[in-house]
C-alpha cells in the first residue's frame, strides 16, 4: 500500500465511525505562549480540552503537520542518526471530546491496524499505565481489560509514568495512555530475543506507532490532580512509522515517503544510499530537514536570529553542514529538493506547491549565506590552529566558533581532528552553560493556575462595535517574573482587542465604584482574551466598566485599514504574486512584509502610494461581514493566508468589492477617509524574496510632512531663498569641491616654500646634517610631506621641527637613511621626550615620529630641549 492510500484509509476509517475530518493546523503557532510549533495533533484542540471553546464536532480526525525540535519534545539530535524520529512528521489522530472513551478508542485502533492495514497480530504489543505512587494512581485496569478482548495478556505491558501518563504541560489536562508498538525484526531474530523485552527500549525495529491518550484529569499548578468534568480521547499515530510497518520496511526512510528525496540527493551527490553509514546519515538528515524547513517557511516562519525563526535556521544549517561535510555539497543544494517534496505532497498539503518558488528561493539564500559563514569559520579555525602551541582548541574558542560562526561542536571537532588537534569539550560545555544560565535568568517566570470566579463562560468580544463595556471578571492568573507580579484577567465580555493579525492589543482601564485598574496590554492565549494588569481587583466579583484607550485604537484602526489598501495596491502595481508574509499594525505605523523578488523602483512606490491615497479620497465605506462560511468568503474573492488558522466561519473586510476583500479579525475605520494621508516611509528587504514597506497615516503622516516641509524651509532660508533650491544646493557642493582643490594646491605650494627655507638653514655637523626650526604649516599632512621631502634630499638628515598646525602644537623628528643605520638617534624616543614640553604624547618609528600636544607656548622649549639632546 503506498503512503497516499495509507493516509486516505485512516481518514476514511474514522469518517465511517462518525468523525468529522478537519485540515491540519499550521506548523507555526501564533497565539500559544507555551509552544513555538505544533508538536502533536492535540495542539489545535487545546482549548477544547481546557473548556475554553466548544469543539465543532465531538468526534474529529485528521493528519497534523508536527515539528519536534524545541521545548519538551525535541528529537533534533536523533534525527538522521536513527531511522524513526523526524523533525517534521505527520501525526494521524482521532479525537473524542466528551464523547466515546477507552472502549471504542481501543477497539477501533485494533480494527484499523489488523483488519484494514493487515498488520500481523503477533507482531504487536500494547502498553497500559502501570500506576504511580506519587499521584496515588493505580494500574489502568480498565484499559487492560479492554485490550484483553483482542490480544494475549502477555503482550500487554505495564508502562511507567514517563511513557504511559500523558501531560499537556506542567499543568493542564492529563491522563493515562496506551501505546501500540510493532516489532519489525526478522523471524529468526524474534525467535532469539522476544520482542516484549525490546518495547520502549530504543530499538530501531521495535517502535511505538500509536499512542491513545485518555484524558481524565487536570493537573493543577501545585501538582495535584482533579477529575475533569468530561473525559476525552486524544490519539496520535506516526504516519511515517505506520508506512514503514505496512510496507514491510525497517526504516522510515525506505518508505515511499522519503525515497524520492533520498534518490534525488544520491544522484546529485553521486553517492549510493546504504553504501556507507556516514553518507547515509547525511542523506537522511537532508531528506528529513528539507521537510521541516519548507513547511515552516510555507506556514509563515522565515529563518531568523530569534525564537522560532532561529530554530528553523538551525535545522537548515544542520542539513547544510551534513551535506557540506559528508556529501561534498559546497554550493547551495537543499533548495532543489523543494519541488520534489511539493509534488509529492501536493494533494495533502497544497500550500507548499502553491509557494514552491518562494520557499526554494528563501532556502537558497539561506544556504548561500551559511556556506559563506562556513568558509569564514574555516579560516578562523585555521587561524586558531596556527596560533596553537598545544594540541587542544580551547573551550572559549570552540564556543566562539559556535556562537558567531554557527559552527556546531562536532564540526569543529571533526576539522580539528583532520588537522591533528582535539577540542576542549568540557570547556565548551562550561561556556554553553554560562550562556544558558544567562538566558534562563532573563526568562524564568512562574505561572499560577487560572482561578475561576463563578461559572466558566466564553468571552464575548464587543470591541468591533464599541470601546466601552460593562464587564465581570471570570478568571485570573498570577505571573511572577523577577520578583514582579503581573496579573492576567479574563472577562465575560470585553471591548479590548487582543493582539492578532499583526494589530497590537488594546490598552485602557477597568473601573468600579471603588477602584480603577489599568490594562497595559491584551493578548490571545489560544481562544482566551487575556488582559494584562499590574494590579488585581480588590473585589473579584464587582462589576467594572471597561474602557479602551480611544486614540491609540483609532490610529491602529487607520493603520490596519491602510494595510488592506496597501496590499491591494501592491497586487495591482507589482502583480498577483504579492502575498502577505507578515504585518505589524500599531498606533505609530504599519509594517507590511510581502513576497516580491526585487526592490521596488521609486516609480512603483509612488504608484502604490497614489492608488492608496486615491482610495482614501473616495472615502469608501467599510463593508464588514461577520460569520461568513469560509467557502463563501473565498468566492467573494478573499484570499486565505498561508499559515493562518481559520475557523469554519470567518469575518470578511471589504473596501470596494473590486479592490480589497480580506479575511480579517482586526478593527477597521468606518470609511477610508479616516485614514487621511497615507505615506510610505521605507521600502527594504527582510529576507530573500520578501520585501518590507513601512508607512504612516493620518496624524503621523501629517506630522511627517510638516517636519519635512519645515526642514526644507529652514534650508531655503539658510541659502537666502533661492528660486531653485535644488540647483542652489548643487552649486554649493560644486563650489566647495572646487575650493578644496584650490586649497590643496595652495597648501602644497606653502609646504614647498617652507621646505626651501628649511634647506637654507641646514647645518652640517660631523656625520649629520641638522635642520631644526620652529615653523607653521596648514595641516598634518603637509608636515609629513615636508619631512619626507627633506629626507630624500639629505642622507644624513636629522630634522627636528616644532610646528604650529591650525593653532595647535606638534613635534616632528625625521632621521635620514644613512644616519638611521648608526642607531644613534631614535625618532620615536626623541619625540616622546620632546612632546612633554607641549603637554602631548606620541611616538613612532625609529626614523620618523610625530606628536601633537596642547601647549602651543611650549614650542620654543621643544627646540631648547632638542639642542640638549643632540649634544
Ligand atoms: P518516541 O518515544 O518514539 O519518541 P513519543 O512517545 O515521543 O515517541 P508521542 O508523543 O506519543 O510519541 O507521539 C505519538 C506518535 O507520534 C508516536 O507513537 C510516534 O508514532 C509518532 N512520533 C513521535 N515522535 C516522532 C518523531 N520525532 N518522528 C516521527 N514520528 C514520531
Ligand atoms: Mg519522543
The helix content, as a percent range, equals 25-40%
Q: Quickly count the domains.
A: 5
Q: Taking all residues together, what is the mean pLDDT? A: 93
Helical segment count:
25
Poorly predicted runs are none
Strand content: 25-35%
Q: Enumerate the distinct ligands.
A: adenosine-5'-triphosphate, magnesium ion
Helix-and-strand structural type = alpha+beta
CATH third-tier fold name of the largest domain: BirA Bifunctional Protein, domain 2
Our Rg estimate from Cα atoms comes to 37 Å
- Tell me the name of the CATH class of the largest domain: Alpha Beta
Q: Specify the CATH homologous superfamily of the largest domain.
A: Bira Bifunctional Protein, Domain 2
Global geometry: globular
Main pleated sheet: 9 strands, mixed
Q: Termini distance?
A: 103 Å
Q: What is the tally of beta strands?
A: 37
CATH architecture annotation of the largest domain: 2-Layer Sandwich
GO cellular component, one term: cytoplasm
Main location: cytoplasm
Cofactor: Zn(2+)
Pfam family, one: tRNA_SAD
